[in-house]
Amino acid sequence: MPAVLSMDEIVNAVCLHTADRKGVNVRDVQVELSWDEDTGFTAEVWTQGRSQYLVASNIVEAVLRYLHTEYNIRAYPEDVRLELEDEIIAVVND
Predict the structure, then answer these.
(1) DSSP symbol at 39
(2) ∠ CA(11), CA(87), CA(51), 5° rounding?
(3) Which InterPro entries does the record match to this protein (predicted)?
(4) What is the longest distance spanned by two Cα atoms in the chain?
(5) How many domains is the chain partitioned into structurally?
(6) Which H or E element spans position 59?
(7) Which positions ≥6 away from 44 have C-beta within 8 Å?
(8) Residue 73: phi, psi to the nearest 5?
(9) To pair with 42 at 20 to 30 A between CA atoms, which of 2, 13, 59, 83?
(10) What is the CB neighbour count within 10 angstroms for residue 86?
């Protein structure tokens, strides 16, 4: 049975990943996930007064790291699929 990460967990994953990469406190990172027919899944990330857009592969990278650090699950990019239901979720195949 595949694991499913909620939108809140994906936001947490992107926040933690961004904070670590930029060397800032996780409380100083804001994330807004979105889906658009033309661009697919994206995240707008704000740190230190600047905005940055992440594409789906960047979001998946953050999810992979989150899975490993929070759940001790080692997964590969091809194991993670972003989906749009009532909210954006990440489905992780085992």
Answers:
(1) T
(2) 40
(3) Uncharacterised_YxcD (IPR020516)
(4) 41
(5) 1
(6) helix 56-71
(7) 31, 32, 34, 51, 52, 53, 54
(8) -110, 125
(9) 2
(10) 6
Structure tokens at 21: 């990469």
Q: How many CA atoms lie within 13 A of 93 on its CB side?
A: 8
pTM exceeding the 0.85 threshold for the entire prediction: yes
Interval 40-91: pLDDT, tens: 999 999 999 999 999 999 999 999 999 999 999 999 999 999 999 999 999 9
pLDDT in tens, 21-40: 999 999 999 999 999 999 99
Domain assignment of residue 34, given as a range: 3-92
Task: Indicate the SS3 state at residue 22.
Answer: helix
**26 DSSP 8-state letter:** G
Q: How far apart are CA 74 and CA 66, in angstroms?
A: 10
